[in-house]
Structure formats: C-alpha cells, structure tokens
C-alpha cells in the first residue's frame, strides 16, 4: 500500500538530512535549512525526530558572530547506522566498520595464504559484526554481484554476492575495486567536484571505474586492460592479442614498479625504456576510454600511480595522439588522495548510498 504523501515526504526529508550530515559533517540548523531548501520549522521537526531516534545529536560548537554566542551544531551519531566494508585482494583482506558520518569504528587486516578462499576469510574477519549493509570490493569485472572475471583472484563467473551470503548468513553487495575507489575519492577524497570521475586501478590486471555525478556506473567496471594497444601483439589470457594487460605484463611492472622507477632514476636505460613504453600503452588505452566516456577527471590508482608519476610525459603525449582535443581541454589527470584506502572507503560509501536509498 502506498504511503500517504505527507509521510512519504517526511521519509525523504529524513534521508536527505542524514545524507547531508553524513557527507558534509556537523553543521548548524541554518546551514541545513539552506542546503536542503526546506524551511526552518521543517528542519527543526526533523532534527528533533532524528535526535529521538538516536541518529543525530546537537552539540555546542565554537562561538560565532559579534555577540559571541556559541552556535549549536547538528551531528550524526556514528553508531546509529554502520556499514561493513571489505576489500578483497589476492594476498590480503581489509575490513572496516564505518559509522554514519564516515568515522571508521573498527578496522582490521589479514593476510591470505596462497590458495585460501577469500569468501571464507571474509566470514572470519567480519565475524558477527552487525551493520545496516555489507559491501565487498573485488578486483575484476563485476556485474550485479557476480564476478565475471578476475585476473587477480583467478575467478571466472563466481556469484560472489551469493557465496558471501551463504558464508556469512547476511546480504552482501559486491563492487569492483576500481569503481569502489572512484566512489571513495568522490565522496571522501577531493574529487567531489568532478562531474564524471574515471578511476584507473592497477592491480594484477587493469580496470577502470566511472562515477557520474556521484553515482557509480551500473554494470561494472571498464576493462581497461583488454583494450588493444598493439594490434597483433602479445597473446592475452582473454584470447585477444596486444591487450594493454598483456603488453604491460611483459614489462613486469605489476610486481616491480618500484624497482623499475628506482632503476630508471639511477640511469638504467632498459628500465627507462620499459617505463616509457608502458606509459605510452597506458596513454593510448586511455584515449579509447576517454573517447567513449568523456570524463572531466582521471585518477591513477594502484601501481598505475607510480607509473603515472614516473611517466606523465609519455602518458600524456600518447593520450593526446588518440583523443579529440575538446575531450582533453578540461580534463584533469592526477593521483588519488586516499591512496590505497580508496576502495575500502568507497565500498563503505556504496553501502551508505544503498541505506539512504532504502530510507527514501
Ligand atoms: Zn586481453
């Protein structure tokens, strides 16, 4: 049965107010009134209501104005809504329990033995932790909770969401690492102004995630690593030839980017050549992705961060040769501010987005 309009409106306003505080931190009732475009009495009633339900609290902040009266700030109660986030990698698992407002309440990391099943390890690391949502990030091609392909984990067609649910007895969302990191940088990094944010993730295999006006692109990540950059080149595991992944693998940078940049810095000509050619391949693949998606900001994450920092010139020149000038003109290329934390934070934010959506 449909809810009466007034009840529905109230639900939507509650969700909007909590989301505003979650994203932008404690603020005054006046600031909330302006941000949400609601009147003062509506904000007042919502704040009272949400304080009674334990979701927010009002605290006295610093003195403001000439009268020196302390302003009252409305803030989230972190433990009132929590999200469990897990980042699955080939050799380790990271877990965070994140509270409303973005505070990390619990955190742990464990190494995965070779051959260990990450799904079982997730059940152990999350234990009996209760939360409003649970989200796992997985490196690879993810669609609707299923992992079609993960070079890093050696998975093909695994319904990770269903397996996680069976192992833990609760519902899970699964998102690819690149998209999770893009969400993390948009919501908790400094890319919140980007209209279309493209995050390139270098793990074992290269993927890219796209966030458009704050929302992750549905249908999984972009298979950056399987864009052909050398027609007729090296054979790739996917069956094509000359994929970026296959060409990059020949340079051994996924495991050896630090050694290569160090050697190049010491004047090793062979290392410099490997880095330059890798940068050119990346730039060409990027041209294809940018032509298809038209982002306004690109972040180089995982080991691509080091590659970009050491080869920005060849990346940019190969990119310029394969991309229309108007797509490049307002584009920013840079490295992510959250570093390796992006995917875990983004997995949590993916969970919060779902929680707010359900509240509406
Ligand atoms: Zn391929």
Automatic annotation (TrEMBL):
The protein's name: ROK family protein
Assigned protein family: Belongs to the ROK (NagC/XylR) family.
Species for this entry: Glycomyces niveus
């Amino acid at each position: 049965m449909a809810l009466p309009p007034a009840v529905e409106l109230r639900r939507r306003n509650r969700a909007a107010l909590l989301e505003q505080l979650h994203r932008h931190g404690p603020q005054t009732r006046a600031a909330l009134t302006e941000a949400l475009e609601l009147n003062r009495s509506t904000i007042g009633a919502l704040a009272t209501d949400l304080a009674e339900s334990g979701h927010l609290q009002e605290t006295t902040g610093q003195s403001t104005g000439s009268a020196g009266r302390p302003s009252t700030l409305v803030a989230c109660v972190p433990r009132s809504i929590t999200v469990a986030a897990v980042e699955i990698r080939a050799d380790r698992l990271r877990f965070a329990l994140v509270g409303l407002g973005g505070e990390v309440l619990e955190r742990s990391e464990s190494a995965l033995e070779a051959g260990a099943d990450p799904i079982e390890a997730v059940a152990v690391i999350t234990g009996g932790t209760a939360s409003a949502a649970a989200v796992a990030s997985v490196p690879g091609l993810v669609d609707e909770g299923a992992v079609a392909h993960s070079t890093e984990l050696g998975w093909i067609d695994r319904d990770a969401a269903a397996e996680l649910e069976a192992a833990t007895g609760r519902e899970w969302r699964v998102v690819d690492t690149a998209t999770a990191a893009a969400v993390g940088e948009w919501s908790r990094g400094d890319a919140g102004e980007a209209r279309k944010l493209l995050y390139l993730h270098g793990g074992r295999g290269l993927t890219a995630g796209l966030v458009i006006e704050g929302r992750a692109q549905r249908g999984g990540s972009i298979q950056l690593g399987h864009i052909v950059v050398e027609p007729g080149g090296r054979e790739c595991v996917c069956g094509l030839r000359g994929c970026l992944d296959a060409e990059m693998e020949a340079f051994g940078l996924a495991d050896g980017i630090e050694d290569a940049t160090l050697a190049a810095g010491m004047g090793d000509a062979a290392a410099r050549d490997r880095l330059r050619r890798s940068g050119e391949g990346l730039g060409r693949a990027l041209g294809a992705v940018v032509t298809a998606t038209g982002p306004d900001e690109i972040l180089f994450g995982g080991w691509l961060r080091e590659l970009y920092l050491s080869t920005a010139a060849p990346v940019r020149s190969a990119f310029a040769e394969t991309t229309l000038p108007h797509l490049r003109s307002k584009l920013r290329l840079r490295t992510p501010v959250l570093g390796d934390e992006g995917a875990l934070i983004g997995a949590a934010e993916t969970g919060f987005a779902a929680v707010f959506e359900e509240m509406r």
